Amino acid sequence: MNAQQPAPPVSDKPLIEKWAPTEWGPEDKAGAVNRTTPALVLKSVKLVKQGKVATLGKLYHSTIPAFGARSWNMIIPGTPTGGPFGKNALVYHDELVTTEIGQIGTQFDGPGHIGVRTSKGDFYYNGRWREQAYERGAGGRVVGMGDLGPEWVAEKGYVCRGVLLDAPAYRGVKRLPIPKTTTSPGIVTAADVKGMLQKQGLADLGEGDCVFLYTGHGDLWLNAEWKTLSLEERAKRRAEFNSGEPGFG
After folding, report:
1. What are phi and psi for residue 205, nearest 5 degrees?
2. What's the pLDDT at 8?
């Protein structure tokens, strides 16, 4: 908890509505992934019929869209970095990456990524306060998120029924627009979710399901075509992508 008065704006909803402790107890660090029980895993794997795989990850590249000042920069030290070694003349490459590793391209945010600034300090998952959660190194420097790190989620992992909701098909458009008003078709409501499930002939959502909402916004930088675009076109698409996004609201 912060001893100093937090800078505005603040919201005390987490305190008033008692967001903590969660249903998994005050010591839990993982959240909704706790719904991935052995029974759910066994139920989910029975849904596999064709054995197909799909790529959900996004391309890492220095020119991809990124929020604020975030960036992805990678270099290969030496070409190759080392070798040749031994009778087989082995050579190898290393890589040096400078980036916000959890918040660029394919993001893997943990419980410590998003919090709420309250009148008592910055409130995070399960009632943890930002300053108390930090893992600190030499000189008090923050070197990790401690009990709010993504590793607690990763230790459990997700095996689930995946439900892909096709919002553009439901709206009858190629890509949902970036919302400019509260009535924008780029905002997906609970009623829309029910409508998409019905239109796509899918069973209702259940506990432990993993929901994937396709809006078309990510098509502004498709993996297969990004490197083929001119620098000018990439800049144009970055600007549009970063200007807002459709989605749940």
Report:
1. -65, 145
2. 83
CA angle in degrees (0–180, nearest 5) for 215-100-140 = 140
Which residue, chain included where needed, has tokens 């002939």? Answer: 201
Secondary structure (DSSP) of the chain:
--SSPPPSP---HHHHTT--S-TT-TT--SGGGGG--HHHHHHHHTT--S-----------TTS--STT--EEEE-SSSSSEEEETTTTEEE---EEEE-TTSSSS----TTS--EEETTEEEEGGGEEHHHH-EE-GGG-EEE-GGGSTHHHHTT-----EEEEEHHHHHTSSSPPPPSSTT-TTEEPHHHHHHHHHHTTPPPP-TT-EEEEE-SGGGGG-HHHHTTS-HHHHHHHHHHHHT---EE-
The chain-wide mean pLDDT, for the chain, equals: 94
Q: Where are the domains of the chain?
A: 1-156, 161-249
Are residues 104 and 145 in contact, defined by beta-carbon separation less than 8 angstroms?
Answer: no
pLDDT tens per residue, range 16-66: 999 999 999 999 999 999 999 999 999 999 999 999 998 888 999 999 999
User: CA-CA distance, 61 to 156, in Å (whole number)?
Assistant: 29
Pair of tokens at residue 28: 């839990």
Burial class (CB in 10 A: 0-12, 13-18, 19+), 168: middle
CA 82 to chain centre: 35
pTM: 0.87
Query: What's the burial of 162, exposed, middle or buried (CB within 10 Å: 0-12/13-18/19+)?
Result: middle
Residues 77-88: tens digit of each pLDDT: 999 999 999 999
